[in-house]
């Protein structure tokens, strides 16, 4: 029967994910096969065979995904298969080093060197370079991007850091076909960057070549927040437009069979020219399958074409299963194809657009929440407007402008992009309406999938409202989940050389954030500035809060006004609602000025202040009233969570420690957040003999220029027989507890 290839394709996808390994996906695969055995017995055997084949196939591929290189200094001959990515003073490229690929990363020294590297390092260039091979960093915070795993899934195991790139040691060799195509692609992108205004060049390059390097980060963020980022990805619509236009033009001169054959040869080349992303590969492979069947005078069901494409791509690279573009591309396309009869029954184009946007949003919902933790309320409405706008206006003009380089066309395209960006900015920044739900757990995901499947079935039966009610119920359950969870947590985030501590009480009775860390701002020459420099608030703290499903902080506790403690506070206040800020007297003026644009009330706290929420009591031990110092005027908190007493010592030094001991001679703590990142001016022997901590947590940056933590401090803690955890070595330190106690977890054991 037509359309049945989807069952073994789904089994293959489950099997690859289950072999990763994943206990949850193994269970889902078993349930899926059992349901097929009961409801679709004729599809059970093909699905079982596909599952077994791809399970074993992935294990074999993964077993052979190893490195033969070792760390340390090496002299390597590396081959550039594509033009390197140059952003400010940083150059990056995945290069071939013998039989392996390594990720080359180089900091450019001068503006002249930058221009020389951009001009000379093209596909097919081989260079002899000396430098260090280092292991990529794994994720150091919960929910964070795991760079080591990402590179491994691209069969890269090492970062190569050359000491210098001597262009006299580089030669151009005979390029491969793919390298020739990459060179054409790079030339096309540079031509667009040279001829189009900056605000339009990024969109044109993304639509034509799948290259987003020229896109403004705020634009990308806005498109992503509003759920319309797919418009900037080359996918089925682009390929359909291209194939249709090419066929219409070709059959005027050659037979249809010859035109189809030419397209079968051209589409793989176009996939490379368009960036070879999963959505591009899916669109081109599906188009090739459909064209091949037509060439043989046959017909193929669209679902079968999609399914065979999925199977082919899994054979080509089973690691694609974890690519968010692959997941969204296939799931949304499947939903639209499976639901085509309902969409075709729309009475008007507007209704069809709305139903298509709704179906796509429903299908994408679990993936969007898992990867991005939030959805935009404007998404469906904006897709109704933007899909035809891009399909019938922006995309054709982009192609015409790039092909003919006609100044009036480029001017028109630029003005249209300005208008489009203004609309995106209006809904993503000025009137953003984001619903933060957090990352759904395995069972929550299962609930979403069940509710969405039920919604599509109800929709086909004419009961759309009932189906949407099921999805709304699943969303309500996720929203309510933290408030019925008896577990609380304390997480010391890895924010480099700074402090940021997340506290959530059981049943989410309160959520606190102690400090936010911050990213130092260095004065850089214009040519060194990167399009998206790392920002600890935007890239670490805010994603963690959103992944937790936090929409409101009951208190943002800023211990003092050093940048490594409060620098990211504006980013936090811009992302989540903050009910109140508590800070030290000395930091009060600076914090008030920082909070004023967000209308957040600020209060200073001193020794003796207390508050209690449920069983958790918080006491401010320092500073005393009238203390307006910096480090020695930091807020010091004592609390009891999960049967452990915690002392958060901020950045106090010896003088403040002595004052604490005088004021509280019986002070004890099970867990000490070590003061001032382990500086030798803090955590004195007398202080430790008084507090007697059983565990010590040091928030400190890797390779920091201050030499923190001090060897003397580490020795004192060992003499106290305290367990030591450090964020630079262990990543985030997480304590999950309930009324019976708790357990510590570290990201990097």
TrEMBL record:
Membrane topology: Multi-pass membrane protein
Origin superkingdom: Bacteria
UniProt KW Transmembrane keyword: yes
Keywords carried by this UniProt record: Cell membrane, Membrane, Transmembrane, Transmembrane helix
InterPro entries per the UniProt record, alphabetical: ComA-like_MBL, ComEC_N, Competence_ComEC/Rec2, Competence_DNA_uptake, DUF4131, Metallo-B-lactamas, RibonucZ/Hydroxyglut_hydro
One Pfam family in the UniProt entry: Lactamase_B
Coiled coil: none
Location(s) in or outside the cell: Cell membrane
PANTHER family hit by this protein: DNA INTERNALIZATION/COMPETENCE PROTEIN COMEC/REC2, RECOMBINATION PROTEIN 2
Protein name from the UniProt record: DNA internalization-related competence protein ComEC/Rec2
Lineage: Bacteria, Bacillati, Bacillota, Bacilli, Bacillales
